[in-house]
Design goal:
- There is one protein chain.
- By secondary structure, the chain is mainly alpha-helical.
- It folds into 3 domains: 30-123; 135-233, no CATH class; 246-319 and 333-350, no CATH class.
- Helix content is 52%, strand content 10%.
- Strands 1-2-3 form a 3-stranded antiparallel beta sheet, with helices on both faces. Strands 6-7-8 form a 3-stranded mixed beta sheet, with helices on both faces. Strands 4-5 form a two-stranded antiparallel ribbon.
- The protein is globular, with a radius of gyration of 23 Å.
- The two termini are 40 Å apart.
Length: 356
């Protein structure tokens, strides 16, 4: 009698040379289910929050974020090129839509990865709104400069090894750190911004970047100065920002039951939640668009208060400064954890229908 329960072990050899590499197509590889993309994002976010005060875990996390971000950016570029090729060949509309959906998938993933990088940087700068605004006011290319990346990583490693206890952020991993290439917190009151010059950096570009950085740092050090033709002063107010997660708990519970829910918070904000697991389990092809449209209508009527339909993900990462946590567990309550989970599905998450 043959025992079919026995494990089987086999071997094979594969030659992967330059010729084989050129044969490998960008498309047609293994499809990654949307929920597995979300698993990775959730793991990144969990480490960013749990290890926020520990330099080495954050260093390792940033290297993982960088790898995923480069992959996502390459996928977006490849999809754009493929769409152009399909249109030039008068391909079927369904084929173009399929590649467009893949492009959208990686565009959202790219944004979500940088959202997590933003959260790391916000906590590093201790939620200093004046510094955050000043450091964000500069045009920058929205993608990783692959040619200059080795120089930045070498500088990153050199700073890491030279200053024990310092915390670093690779600015390319964020949306808003647009000054310099590396942000370093030497200690609680000393921040350093490092501009890395590679052999390919044009001298004129480097000079402009240095002048812009010097002007920004002078403004922050002097707590004021000329900004956009106006005299601006930085003032600290004795207030403690808070995150009002409880204000949306009932809306989250509604989404968990019905799939789609929205709410108005004060006179400045509308929020929307979509629980795709509930939506798809109910056999429908999309969330309740009537509720989404109701939320949009309320936001549009809120002028002159200028209500904004904000991304919930922003609140979950960049809300009130997170409370201190030990190495093993965060002390977020159950409702805050639920809020963060839904935030990821609402903004960073993708429609699970596109996983096929």
């Amino acid at each position: 009698m043959v025992d079919n329960s026995r494990k089987k072990y086999s071997r094979r050899s594969v030659a992967f040379d330059e010729f084989r590499r050129k044969q490998v197509s960008t498309f047609g590889g293994r499809a990654i289910p949307a929920d597995e993309h979300l698993m990775v994002l959730e793991d990144h976010l969990d480490i960013a929050m749990r290890r926020r005060n520990h330099a080495y875990p954050l260093f390792k996390l940033q290297m993982a974020l960088l790898t995923d971000l480069i992959t996502a950016e390459k996928a977006v570029a490849d999809c754009k090129k493929k769409i152009e090729e399909l249109k030039a060949a008068s391909a079927e509309a369904a084929d173009i839509e399929a590649v467009s959906a893949e492009q959208q998938r990686y565009t959202v993933l790219r944004r979500a990865l940088r959202d997590i990088g933003d959260g790391i940087a916000w906590r590093l700068l201790e939620y200093d709104r004046a510094a955050l605004v000043a450091l964000a006011s500069h045009a920058r290319k929205p993608h990783i400069n692959i040619e200059g990346l080795p120089a930045e990583l070498n500088a990153f490693a050199d700073i890491w090894n030279s200053y024990s206890g310092s915390m670093l952020v690779l600015n390319d991993l964020t949306h808003f750190l647009k000054k310099a290439d590396i942000t370093v917190r030497r200690d609680a009151d000393h921040f350093e911004f490092v501009e890395v010059k590679s052999s390919r950096t044009k001298s004129g570009t480097m000079s402009r970047q240095k002048a812009d950085l010097a002007e920004t740092l002078a403004f922050l050090n002097e707590q004021g100065g000329e900004r956009h033709g106006q005299t601006v002063r930085i003032r600290s107010l004795p207030v403690q920002p808070k995150g009002f997660f409880n204000a949306v708990c009932s809306t989250i519970r509604e989404a968990e039951k019905e799939g789609t829910a929205w709410a108005k918070i004060g006179e400045h904000l509308t929020v929307e939640f979509i629980d795709w697991s509930v939506v798809l389990r109910g056999g429908v092809e999309e969330p309740d668009m009537k509720k989404i449209e109701e939320s949009a209508a309320v936001a549009e009527r809120a002028i002159p208060v200028r209500a904004e339909r904000r991304a919930i993900f922003d609140l979950s990462i960049f809300g009130a400064p997170a409370r201190e946590a030990d190495d093993e567990h965060t002390d977020d309550d159950v409702e805050t954890q639920r809020f963060r989970r839904h935030s990821l599905y609402r903004v960073a998450g993708l429609d699970p229908r596109s996983s096929a």
